[in-house]
Amino acid sequence: MISALVHDPVVHLAIACCLALMLALSAIHKLLDLHTFGRVLGGYQIALKGLLPERLTPVLLVVLPLLELVASAGLIASFWVPASAFVAIALLALYAGVLGLSVAYGAAMDDCGCHFGIARQPLGAGLVWRNLALVSLAAHLLVPATGRPLGWVDLITLMFSIVGAAALYLVTNLLIHNRVFLR
């Protein structure tokens, strides 16, 4: 019974749409301000104590946002095909790993590059857990949805799910941001 609900096509659509929206906004944010994104990558290079070679930074400036756009488009265009989630999983796991290593090394970066607004998001363990939760949502898309036909109620449910998930994501980021600053 619960398995049928978890693999309902509306759940898959909601996860795919939310992750696609998040990845697309993240890519656009990076591409619109490459200078700041380059500065964030430089901060990670220092935080990771040489694990991220400096010569790789110009490549990452372009490749990471493009991969985010590819993952976003893949999640929307072919959410029925579980393989389209692999790029999203790889990116989110990479981000969680880099954040985790930076936190473990005790990096004191004032901006992780994980935000969409003007306010900076400092590093913290909460960001690692948030990204791991996003990885698990993306991994959920690897299991095919049931073949139930969708109706008009499903469209309304999907719209409210996307709005609710976006609000939850923003509130979670705000709570993580405030917790780091309160320390």
Describe the structure.
The chain is an all-alpha fold and 183 residues long. Helices cover 72% and strands 0% of the residues. It contains seven helices and no strands. Helix 2 packs across helix 6. It is globular, with a radius of gyration of 17 Å. 28% of the residues are buried. The mean pLDDT is 82.
| Overall average pLDDT | 82
Biggest sheet statistics: none
Class per helix and strand makeup: mainly alpha
Oligomeric nature of the chains: single chain
Strand residue content: under 5%
Helix content: over 70%
From the N-terminal CA to the C-terminal CA, the straight-line distance is: 44 Å
Say how many strands there are. 0
Low-confidence stretches: none
Radius of gyration: 17 Å
SSE order: HHHHHHH
Number of helical regions: 7
* Broad shape: globular
